[in-house]
Structure formats: C-alpha cells, structure tokens
Amino acid sequence: MELIFFLKALANIFFAGILIIAIGLSGAFTLMSYLLKSLGLYYRVKLAKEKPVNS
Fold first, then answer.
1. Which residue has the higher pLDDT, 15 or 47?
2. How far apart are CA 44 and CA 37, in angstroms?
3. What Å distances lie between residue 17 and 10, 22, 23, 52, CA to CA?
4. What is the DSSP letter of 51?
5. How far apart are CA 2 and CA 21, in angstroms?
6. In 1-55, which ranges are continuous DSSP H helix?
7. What distance separates the 2 farthest-apart alpha carbons in the chain?
8. CA terminus-to-terminus distance, the chain
9. What gap in Å lies between CA 18 and CA 26, rounded to an integer?
10. What is the reported pLDDT for 13?
11. Separation between Cα atoms, residue 36 and residue 44, nearest integer Å
C-alpha cells in the first residue's frame, strides 16, 4: 500500500517538474526573443540616424 502511495507521489513530482521546466523554458524563450527584438530595433534606429538610407 505504501509503495503505491510512493509511486503516486513520485509521478506527481515528476509531472510538476516537467510543467515547471516547460513554463520556464517558454518564459525564457519569450524573454530572449523580446530582448533580441528590442536590440534589433535599437540598432536599426541607430544606423538610420547615423547614415541616411538612399531610396
């Protein structure tokens, strides 16, 4: 009886860990893409100010 309870607890911890890791990864990925976008925007504006685009 205790073994079944132990296995259930282990499975719950395992799934919670996977969920936390998945949320953490997606959050980190979102943060990274946001930072890269803002950096790209900053450099684009900087370059545009330094030399006018020939159109």
1. 15
2. 10
3. 10, 8, 10, 52
4. S
5. 28
6. 2-50
7. 78
8. 77
9. 12
10. 94
11. 12
Tokens 């946001």 sit on residue: 34
C-alpha to C-alpha distance for 19 and 12, rounded to whole angstroms? 11
Q: What are the φ and ψ backbone dihedral angles of 53, each rounded to 5 degrees?
A: -80, 130
3-state secondary structure of 19: helix
pLDDT in tens, 24-54: 999 999 999 999 999 998 888 888 887 665 6
The residue written with tokens 């860990």 in the block is 17
Which pLDDT value is given to residue 46? 84
**Position 34: which residue type?**
Y
